[in-house]
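Take a look at the protein record below with the fold in mind.
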Amino acid sequence: MTTRASGDSVIALDTNLLLRYLLNDERKQAERSRALLASGSRFWVPITVMLEIAWVLRSHGADADAVALGLRTILGLPAITVQERDAVVRALAWHQHGMGMADALHLALSHQSERFTTFDKDFIKVAKRIGAQPAVGSP
C-alpha cells in the first residue's frame, strides 16, 4: 500500500457534485461544490463521471452544444484532471457533429484499434459523415 503526503492528495469527484457546480440548481449543494473546487485541492474525474454528466444534461433538455459547454467547463477547471482527457475532447467534437456522447466516447477510447464494429446503423452513418477514426462499420 502506498501512502501519499498530505500535500499530494487528490480528491475524486462524483457526478452530482459537478452537476451542482454546473447547474446551480440546489443552492446549498452548489455553494459547497464551488467552495470545494476553490479550496486549492487537486481533483480527479473518472471518464464515467463525464459520460454521466453528459447523459444527465441531455435528459434535462440540453442540446449537444450545451453538453459540450458543461463538459468543457469541467475540463477547464485548473485543479481538475479528467481521466482520458484527450479522448473526452475528441468525443465532444464528434458529439457536437451529431454523434451520441456514449458512442463518441466508445470510439475515442478505441483510438488504437483498426476499426470499431457495431450494429448501430446511425452510429456508422454519423461516424462516416464526420470522418471519425477508427472507422466504424458493421460485422
